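Fold this: Small ribosomal subunit protein uS3c
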Amino acid sequence: MAQKINPLGFRLGVTQNERSHWFAQQRNYSKDLREDQKIRTCIENYVRTHIKSSSNYGGIARVEIRRKIDLIKVKIYIGFPNLLLIEGRGQGIEKLRNDVLNMLDSVDRKLHIAIEKVAKPYRKPNILAEYIALQLEKRVPFRKTMKKAIELAEREEVEGIQIQIAGRLDGKEIARVEWDRGGRVPLQTIRARIDYCYYPVKTIYGVLGIKIWILEE
């Protein structure tokens, strides 16, 4: 039988690196892990509600978190940085930092947030998934959306991409799974640099699940 496994965890330490860098005692591990999830959720919600790009979606590729005793360093990799999120050009980062600190409810720790622009945003599965979700919310046909997403990725010179959408597609009564692929995506090879994301999107017909695998050069 085939075994399902997360492609990022499968390659951790070989071609993928950790998104969180810290050590904790056993009694504090679950607390810090939940805090990491809260920080990522707070950043994503802030970008979606306050900082809209010209493409009408946030474009967060990934969020890396590093912890020290009294300092939390957060680096946001974003595809389409708004001027408010560029350091020294607005109050966006300061407001985001205050929102995260209020959410953590901690006064004895410092928080540093840095922004880094992604050179080729459509090589990142999270940004492509957000683009697909936006099109599905606008009731664009899912096959047309998948082909357009593959075209955008191929313009960024990816070696291969696979997209899968599951749910009540086009409002049909029976849920199903549809997928499309461009290039090669060897999921069984650990040495292949596969980037992956899962992105749920709410539509008027229900929740659709988007999965994207991208083979980097």
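Strands lie at 20-21, 60-67, 71-78, 110-117, 160-167, 176-183, 194-203, 206-215. Residues 160 and 185 are 5 Å apart (CA to CA).
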